[in-house]
Design a protein that fits this description.
The chain is mostly helical. The chain has two domains: 43-174 and 185-229, Growth Hormone, Chain: A, CATH 1.20.1250; 232-419, Growth Hormone, Chain: A, CATH 1.20.1250.20. 72% of the residues lie in helices and 0% in strands. The two termini are 24 Å apart.
Length: 419
Amino acid sequence: MPHPDTTQPPHPSPASARAPRPAPDVSARPLPRNPYLRLFAVPGTRAFTAGNLIARLPAGMFGVSEVIMISAAYDSYALAGSVTATGLVASAVTAPWVARLVDRHGQARIAVPAAAVAALGHLALLLCAHVHAPAWTLFCAIAPAATTPNTGGMSRARWAHLLRGDAAALHTANAFEQAADELCFMLGPVLAAVLCSALFPEAGALAATVLFLTGVLLFAAQRATEPPVAPRTAAGSPLRAPGMVPLLAVFLATGAIFGSMEVTTLAFVDGPLAGPVLALQAAGSCAAGLLYGRARRTAALRTCLAAMTLLMAAPLLVSGTGSLLALAAGLLVAGMATAPTMVTGMALVQRLTPPSQLNEGMTLAVTALLGGIAAGSATAGWTADHAPSPALGFVLPVTAAALALALCAATGVGRRARG
């Protein structure tokens, strides 16, 4: 990493004051052997990570909180599902544009106002549900929430800036970020359900909004680690990067795995234990992600998808027993391929995307995942209603994983990025 220039005069000129700060240098310090401890030896990383984790926890809270809130006010899960689906679609359309603005103008300048608008949308939805406003107002209120910035992508962009030139450390950082995602989706729904049941139906959504806005403000305040705005290139959209479209197709199929597994599990368990049982998949992914981050060698995307196809069969194989313990164990095993696959896929996105468009490229990957989740959820819902047994729905995640593997093999996207 570059060393700060100690020969500068004590009163730099305005031009030099505006120059991007070099990444902090820790080469003169003894570094811990644990790769995760080495990550946080870099100055400023603990502060931006703490703020980012606070901002990301609500990602696992909003959906559950708003479904509980709307269904309690209007006695309609169909309405609650439609409103949250509308917000998901709006986010998929808006997120890449917000990320493009982040790339062009910087994280703090865009993330803070975008988060403020999104928070107003969530608060408007809460108010509409509280006063039992007409149903159409719920769809209008959720629309501004689509400006939610991709906080996970911005955190990964900071790591890419701070650890540039150190592929091993960046791999560990990407693994940590994926484990953090899984942790948020483990804890978020549980926290939301507890708040809504113990306090009042709107408590989960209100707490999620406060945490989200607070976290973004804390994250954006860490300007020392914010990557400088890279010069724009004539490359156009990241979609034009060779291999990017096939990779997004793989992400789309991968999202279908997650969406179909969630809905199928909820339909199969059909009770209060569904949430804790489903959380075990995220627990398996979190643990595997942390272990993968310590690995000195990384696997190819095709290898990760092949492992995911095999492991996703575990819930299908045990579902015939009718045992919740067996299903919980199967989901724990199935989740173990998730984080390594996502870490490898996001690393490929970083390699394919020009530095000046990194946030937009990673957000496109998240958008593809969201599209796959929506498609997988809808397919699994139809299957749960029409199939003779809910257990048949567990065929869908295996099929989606096999499709993702076939797309990766047919396009050679992993080899293209690695070469």
